[in-house]
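Progress note, project year one: complex with magnesium ion.
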Amino acid sequence: MLTLTREDVRLGCRAADWRAALEQAAAALVEAGRVSAEYREGLLAREAQSSTYLGHGIAIPHGTPESRRHVRSTGVRVLQFPEGIAWHDGSRVNLLVTIAAQSDEHLDILRQLTHVLERDGVGETLAGATSADEVIAALSRAPVSARCDAGTLCLGVPARDRLELALAAAARLRQAGCVDSSFVASVVGQLPLPLGLGLWLVYGTSGVQAPALALATPEQRFRDDVGEVSGVFCLAAQGDAHRALLMRLDGLLARGDGDRLAELPAEQILARLSGESAQAETARVRLLNAHGLHARPAKELVQVARAQAVQVRVRLLEGNGEAVSAASLTKVLGLGARRGQTLVFSAEGEGAAQAVSALAEAVRGGLGEPVTPLQETREESAARVARVVPAEPVAAPVADEPLTAVPAAPGLSIAPAYVLRLPELHYAERADDSAKERERLQRALDGARQQLETLVQRTVGGEVAQILSIHTEMLGDPELRDAAFEAIGEGASAEAGWWRAIDAAARTQEALADRLLAERAADLRDVGRRVLGLLCGVEMPMPPEQPYILVADDLGPSDVARLDTAKVRGLVTARGGATSHSAILARALGIAAVVGAGERVLALTTGVELIVDGESGRVVAAPSPARRQRTEKRIDEQEVLRRAAHARRHEEARTRDGHRVEICANLGNTAHAADAVERGAEGVGLLRTEFVFMAHPEAPDLATQISEYGEAFDALAGRPLVARTLDVGGDKPLAYWPMPQEDNPFLGVRGIRLTLMRPEVLETQLRALLTAAGTRPVRIMFPMVKDIEEFRAGKAIFDRVQAEVKAADVQLGVMIEVPSCALLAPTLAKEADFFSIGTNDLTQYTLAIDRGHPQLSAQSDALHPSVLRLIQLTVDAAHAEGRWVGVCGELGSDPHAIPVLVGLGVDELSVSSRRVPLVKAAVRELTLPRARELAELALRQPTAAAVREALEVV
Ligand code: PEP
Ligand code: MG
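Model obtained:
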């Protein structure tokens, strides 16, 4: 939102030409501390791409996406040139609204300005303004948009008269948060006004929070004492913002499109209300441009629209529905369309079909910008995988024969398998008897509700019960049922009608680009499938009551987080890698896991006994009695060791000859810090702060972050906390920080590269960490650093914040995850306080194997001698400068690797909390000379397999 102060406005500027004017604008932003001097180049480059002239004497210079890194904080500077300057595109400019934006905030500013431009004479007012206040008043009027969308429709009400419908519409506005109860009360006393064609209107002005238009329609048209009733509109009027709504209503009636309006599905009603006539040709297209429909692509679109033989209108499917002229730049910009949203073009008359498809094609082509497809939803990708997987049946693993895959989380367990397979559902799309179909659907809904209620009762507390309750709520949603009934009324079968309703609701959720809401979309589809299963008479898979080993194709981190840890004894997946974040989560939950076991495991039968050895990566189906006995014995022995280690968990880890190694915990959730301390952690060696960000529907603000980090500091009671700054990208996308799809995301914009592009995010995070720490020890490190330049760029921001916050006990370090950084460790060690080696990424980048690669990740072994040499280089360089080195990657908890790492001189190992006692116990088994010998032995080997073999033999 554009808020201006007097300092932001400069009146009476003069310039010889447009370049000189732009120089002044750049200098004004630099002076305000918004940008660094290099931003000027970005402004010029942007202007060279296409003019930023908006209309009415206003231009809006802003930098290119590449120049955003020179932006320190988002803001604008307004320069008034009363005499006007000749802009390079031939227009005359009186006002430069120069924008420094770190992300897509400039879209909102643009949107606001386009509303400003709609007012008559605004150009002259701004050019002739004699005070900053006048300019601010003219620019700062916030656009008030009136609501008329799916949330304000109330269709198929079983009403018998107009007043009942009026009340239903008013109540819908109250539920949508547009009005309060006094508005509803004011509607009660009104007699609806006739609009013709069976439509009626009630309206009110009291208790209106946001202008809006609702429509309530009856189950069936009826006649009451005054006339025919097919729908009642309810208008919440405020200022003049509702006028546009009235005009839309008027247009609808004038076109005669009000007839049978009430019998249309919601989507078409909204289309008619948006100004799209029943005869219009339409085309829909999703916008793929990374930065939405900003000025440059919008201009291209307008040019294509102007070249058409007929007038084309465009609306945003997800917006408040108003269709605007596609030939008007300000109107198109005013849509504020973002990547992923859907544009609907409409036109009438001869050539309409060609016109709308030309526009849709232009949007698909990127409107002059390179575009990348949207990422598939999980459903789509599952469907795609299902299509490419060969239909040939794959044989299940042979009884009692070990199948070796990728060890992902240690632990040994025996339990029956539960193979998660979603059954295929076949059904007819159409049915004749809609009453019967509605009845079938209602029965299935009741059945599903019963199933869920039983499940909720059986599940004791926790996240799983919570999810099941959400599912029950969803089943009871009248909107879903009504939408399905409506589709059935149009001839769909109960199955098709229900799935259409579920799919539409899930898509709407997904379009909101909010992680929590997107997860709700997955829940909606889960609920949908349950009902569909009942309709098709197919039983949906239900996890057994008894403990089991879950066998699945692949699991995402959120699937792992949802596992019922009381029952899941082990995890076997056909795909996935050891250092994928779902594997890391399994380790944190203490569930034995083997991943990348191949499709054969999916051919196992539910109930067959399985042994899962998460340490060696072995899975054995239907073990022989002898093997079973041996495994049980090993489980017992491991339990004895575990108990012994647990008893000494709070003691330091020293080798037999007294060399101390600090053992800390890796955390993703600050609430788990107390648990880590309880398990013997001497501090937190890696706080993956991105999980703090992922747990919020939008970027957590300063106060939220201070409170979350503060929770960990409190629990640590003076022990050190090593926090890694936000590390998203790669396999950890952040829903509210959409990134263009990259061919190689692990080699793309992630880690520090990404946060340096949004310095305000990094700055807030650093401020939060330092503030939360206060006098307690905090260690901060940057992820994915490739050389000293990136470290210095991050350090500059850190220094600025620390100069203000003055936290008492701080160190700033680097994660060694990129080979270049290990090779250049001597230069980094001079400036960084410490290193923490992220062996997961270091291995991925050294061996050039994607850490989650379904086939190759078994070879991605961090005990590879090349990785060990990089660790050796890092430790030597650090110690030469008196710095300490930790290992926070998964290698730190590998029993074979612990002696090698200690022998190489690593000072700290940070592992998942559960592993802390065992890692301490492993250190206590060693002597330093022996560990050094083993390290040297490992370094001499040619391959990872040879290292493992050599270490096993000695
Ligand atoms: C690593 O790469 O080893 C690491 C600790 O970071 P992450 O696994 O979160 O990428
Ligand atoms: Mg990493």
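The longest helix spans residues 434-458.
DSSP finds 35 helices and 33 strands in the chain.
No further modelling is planned for this target in the current period.
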